[in-house]
Amino acid sequence: MDINLELYKVFYYVATTLSFSEASRQLFISQSAVSQSIKTLEKKLGHTLFIRSTKKVLLTPEGELLLEHVKPALLMLDEGEALLSGDNMLKGQLRIGASDTICRYFLIEYFRRFHQSYPDVRIKVTNSTSIGCVELLEKGQVNLIVCNSPNSRLGNHMKVKVLKDFHDVFVGDPDCFAFKHLPCSLKELLEYPILMLSSKSTTSEYLYHTFAAHDLKLLPEVELNSNDLLMDLARIGLGIACVPDYMLDPEDSLKPIPLTEQLPSRQLILVQHDNLPVSQAAERFLEMF
Questions:
Q1: CATH of domain 5-83
Q2: Long-range contacts: 276-280, Cβ < 8 Å, 24+?
Q3: CATH superfamily of 168-263
Q4: Domain parsing of the chain, residue ranges
Q5: Quick one: average pLDDT of 239-255?
Q6: Across the chain, where does the E strand assignment appear?
Q7: Domain 93-165+268-286 maps to which CATH number in 2.30.130.40, 3.40.50.300, 3.30.450.40, 3.40.190.10?
C-alpha cells in the first residue's frame, strides 16, 4: 500500500495531542492541511481513525492500533536522523514528564549535568502530577517520567527504577501552632488545619489511605496543586502543610512536627514504557542514575 510517510507523521501528532489545532501548531502547517491529511489516510486505510466532535477528538480502536505501530517507527526514524547528522555529537530531544516539585528539588541538578555533557540535545520537560505523568508516558508524549511511588496508574508494561526514598512530613510555624505535647498522634494532628495537595495526586491518595488505616478521616482545610504554595501558606500561619522531606531547608521558619506514628516511606521512581524504543538521548540520561 503506497502511503506517504508524512501522512503517518500528521496522524502521530494528532493522535498524541488529540487536537487538530495543536498538531497543526507543532507541525507548522494549517489546520485544514492536517484535517485533509487525516481524511486521505483514513481513505487509503479504509478505516476511521478518529472520533471527532466539537469538544474533543478521540482515537477509534483502529486508530489506537495504528498508533502502537506508528509511534515506535517515527521515534526510530528520528533517532536514525540524529545518528546521521554529520558529526559524533549526541543530538535529538530528551522528553521527560515530572511534577514541578520533583523538577525543582530533585531533577534540576541532573538536567544541568546532562546539558553540560550533551549541549546539542534539547531537553523538553512537561509538568504534570505523578498520575498525569503516567498518562503522558502511555500516550508516547514523553520518553521517561520521574514520579512518586506508590502510583495507582502504573501498569505492568512499565519498567521502574527507584531513584530515592523519602518521607512525607507535616510542617508548621512553631510561633503559630503550639502543640500540647510532642510527638503528637495523627488524631491530634487533625485538630489543626491541614494543607495538602489536591485529590488528583498520588500524595493525596497516599495520605487518605494512611489516615484511613488508623481509622481516621482526613478532612484538609486547603487542597492545592503546588507544594511550594502549601509551604507559603503554612509560613503565614494558615495551617500545617504536608510536603516531601527533601523540600525542607534547615533555615526555614517551618519545622517538622514529630509524630507518634511514623508515616510509610515513598519513592521517587524513573519509569519508561516497555513497548516504546528508548532514544539515545534517553539512554544517556538513564545512565546518570
A1: 1.10.10.10
A2: 276/71, 276/72, 276/75, 276/140, 276/143, 277/72, 277/75, 277/76, 277/79, 278/143, 279/75, 279/78, 279/79, 279/92, 279/93, 279/94, 279/143, 280/79, 280/82, 280/83, 280/90, 280/92
A3: Periplasmic binding protein-like II (3.40.190.10)
A4: 5-83, 93-165+268-286, 168-263
A5: 95
A6: 50-52, 57-59, 93-98, 122-127, 144-149, 158-166, 168-172, 194-197, 222-224, 240-244, 255-256, 266-273
A7: 3.40.190.10
pLDDT digits (tens, 9 = 90+) for 182-206: 899 999 999 999 999 998 899 999 9
Element (H, E) at 138: helix 130-138
Q: What is the pTM of this model?
A: 0.71
Cell numbers that stand for 164 in this block = 530515592
Question: In the 8-state DSSP scheme, what is residue 247?
Answer: G
Residue with cell 501548531: 25
Measured distance CA(162)–CA(156) in Å, rounded: 16
Angle between helices 20-27 and 31-45 (to 10 degrees): 110
Neighbours of 10 (CB within 10 A): 24
65-82 pLDDT, tens per residue?
999 889 888 877 776 766
DSSP state at residue 93: E
Which residues share a beta bridge with 126? 97
- The Cβ of residue 165 has, within 10 Å, a number of other Cβ atoms equal to 12
Q: Do domains 93-165+268-286 and 168-263 have the same CATH topology?
A: yes
CA angle 263, 107, 128 (to 5 degrees): 75
| Radius of gyration of the CA atoms of the chain, in A | 23
